[in-house]
């Protein structure tokens, strides 16, 4: 027993430094995290897809927003249009500014070439330069209740998506009472704020309807009305009527919605 205790009290042999270093080298290190790929070549923002935006540093959600924004404004014509897109990470433009590529503007013909080719165009195609020239942008502000799709598409910054949303909202609502309704029509406040000053609307041009004849679906199609509020309005009119086209006493519907809906209502018959 005494011999065994004596052995326990003996100092252990020291580990050589070389052996200790070799053991440390063999220890597993931390696993490397995923590295986000960086774009090193030219970036064509006009044709960049979702994967390309993610590779350039955007999140998948930001990339989806970038594609929607590009379709809404009719493409990234220049750096100014791209800078308006608020989903870009901070410092993104400064980091990739030299790599960005935008569509080249169409070449402008000289006056001399236009003059010399005028007679040839008239004789070969039967059309003068004026008929082949691209349609000029419409005079602004554009009336939301009177414009058509061709006029909208000639406006700078208005693409097929924006034009379609405007025309669809006008059809459902019966017209725009004010340009501020663009926010609801587009569902995109930042884009609508950019376009507001370029449009006008007159509340006198909206189509007014009799509340007694409106179904829940009709109420739902009015600006700002939710599905639940549409059902509340149907019950209110069936129980209390709408004298003079007035439903301002309807509880369960937001005051802001009632004020907006009032513009689209008229008295029913002789009431």
Itemize the secondary structure elements and their pairings.
Blueprint lengths: L1 H8 L7 H9 L17 E2 L5 H6 L4 H14 L5 H5 L8 H5 L3 E2 L9 H14 L4 H4 L9 E2 L5 H5 L6 H14 L8 H5 L2 H7 L3 E2 L15 H5 L6 H14 L14 H8 L9
Parallel strand pairs: 1-2, 3-4
Q: Could you describe the 3D structure shown?
A:
Helix content is 45%, strand content 3%. The strands form two sheets. It has a two-stranded parallel ribbon with strand order 1-2. A two-stranded parallel sheet has the order 3-4. The chain is built from 15 helices and four strands. By secondary structure, it is mainly alpha-helical. Among the domains are: 59 residues, no CATH class; 62 residues; 52 residues, no CATH class.
Spatial order of the strands forming the largest sheet: 1-2
Give me the count of strands: 4
Low-confidence stretches at least 5 residues in length (pLDDT < 50)? Answer: 33-37, 110-116, 118-132
Tell the overall outline. Answer: elongated
CA radius of gyration: 33 Å
Q: State the separation between the terminal residues, measured CA to CA.
A: 115 Å
Helical residue percent band: 40-55%
Output the structural class.
Answer: mainly alpha
- Per DSSP, the total helix count is 15
Sheet of most strands: 2 strands, parallel
What proportion of the residues form beta strands (DSSP E)? under 5%
Q: Average pLDDT value?
A: 79
């Amino acid at each position: 027993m005494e011999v065994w205790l004596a052995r326990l009290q003996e100092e252990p042999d020291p580990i050589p430094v070389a052996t200790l270093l070799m053991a440390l080298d063999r220890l597993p290190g931390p696993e490397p995290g995923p590295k986000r790929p960086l774009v090193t070549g030219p970036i064509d923002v006009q044709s960049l897809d979702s994967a390309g935006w993610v590779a350039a540093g955007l999140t998948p959600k930001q990339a989806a927003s970038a594609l929607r924004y590009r379709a809404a404004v009719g493409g990234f014509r220049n750096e100014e249009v791209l800078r308006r897109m608020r989903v870009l990470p901070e410092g993104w433009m400064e980091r990739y500014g030299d790599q960005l590529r935008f569509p080249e503007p169409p070449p402008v013909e000289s006056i001399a070439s236009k003059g010399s080719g005028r007679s040839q165009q008239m004789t070969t195609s039967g059309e003068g330069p004026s008929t082949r020239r691209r349609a000029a942008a419409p005079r602004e502000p554009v009336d939301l209740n009177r414009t058509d799709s061709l006029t909208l598409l000639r406006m700078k910054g208005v693409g097929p998506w924006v034009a379609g949303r405007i025309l669809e909202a006008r059809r459902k609502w019966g017209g725009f009472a004010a340009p501020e309704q663009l926010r609801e029509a587009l569902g995109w406040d930042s884009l609508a704020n950019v376009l507001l000053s370029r449009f006008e609307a007159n509340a006198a041009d909206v189509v007014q309807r009799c509340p007694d004849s409106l179904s829940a679906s009709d109420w739902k199609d009015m600006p700002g009305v939710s599905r639940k509020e549409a059902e509340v309005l149907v019950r209110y009119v069936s129980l209390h009527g709408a004298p003079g086209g007035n439903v301002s006493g309807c509880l369960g519907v937001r005051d802001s919605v009632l004020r907006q809906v009032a513009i689209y209502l008229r008295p029913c018959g002789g009431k």
